[in-house]
Amino acid sequence: MNHNDVLRRVRFALRIDDIAAINIFQLAGYKMDIEYLKANMKKEEEPGYLPCRDSVMAMFLDGLIIKMRGAQTDAPPPQLAKGEYLSNNEILRKLRIALSFRDDDMLEVMKLGNFNMSKGEMSAFFRKPDHRNFKPCGDQVLRYFLLGLARKLRPDVANPTTDNDRPVNSPAVKKSLKKKTKPKRSASSQHKTENPAKPAGRIKVWHKPDGNEDKKRSPTKRR
Fold first, then answer.
1. Which stretches within the chain are classed as H helix?
2. DSSP letter at 115?
3. Is 34 left (phi over 0), alpha (psi -120 to 50) or beta?
4. Hey, where are the domains in the chain?
5. Distance (Å, rounded) from C-alpha 113 to C-alpha 142?
């Protein structure tokens, strides 16, 4: 799961359009170009795709925290240093701060994403990496969280998908879900097809002759 997916799904869940996204980047001290933003929103197979860098994803989440919670200082938040990367644990932590979620809120979102976990398992994601109870957040866990977040914050969209970020009940997805399937045959009809009945007629029965049968027969004479 790359940062393009995360950026796209967070924007979908929070209803953030392009103008709002650019303003969020500005809050983090970054001037985002609209064309570059659109390229970061694309999928790998789409033309014009550009991978969203770790620093760009971090600035978006930092700006989101400022937008939702207010700025702590007048200075913009520090950017990632060269060579640093943004882990799934950090993404989950920044989203939790921006949304002011407690443990119960996080577990509720996970449950909405069809993933149940305990408070202990959840708290392990927010430990420091050198802590003995630290647990790395995998792509699948982050995907469940973003799916549950969309279901929690977008009640108008009952079942947002995880693959194409479009609601399942949209016309485009409904059309793709309609598959032409052959009607299932009953067991009797299938049996008839696989074992067609032979036409009625005389049944020839072969039997092993006994030893006296040749003696009973009279020799045939050739004319």
1. 3-14, 18-27, 34-40, 54-69, 88-99, 103-112, 119-124, 139-153, 171-177, 187-194, 213-216
2. -
3. alpha
4. 3-169
5. 10
Rounded to an integer, what distance in angstroms lies between the CA atom of residue 210 and that of residue 148?
A: 82
Nearest by Cα to 114 from 147, 142, 77: 147
What confidence score (pLDDT) does residue 83 get?
A: 86
Separation between Cα atoms, residue 4 and residue 14, nearest integer Å:
16
C-alpha–C-alpha distance, residues 68 and 58, integer Å: 15
Give pLDDT, residue 127.
95
Sign of CA dihedral 44, 2, 77, 61: positive
Structure tokens that stand for 139 in this block: 């792509």
Among 32, 12, 33, 34, smallest CA distance to 24 is for 32
Cβ partners under 8 Å of residue 34, min gap 6: 18, 22
Positions in the chain whose pLDDT score sits under 50:
162-184, 186-209, 212-218, 220-223
CA pair distance 102, 107, nearest whole angstrom: 9
Beta bridge partners of residue 160, listed in sequence order:
167
33 burial level (CB within 10 Å; 0-12, 13-18, 19+): exposed
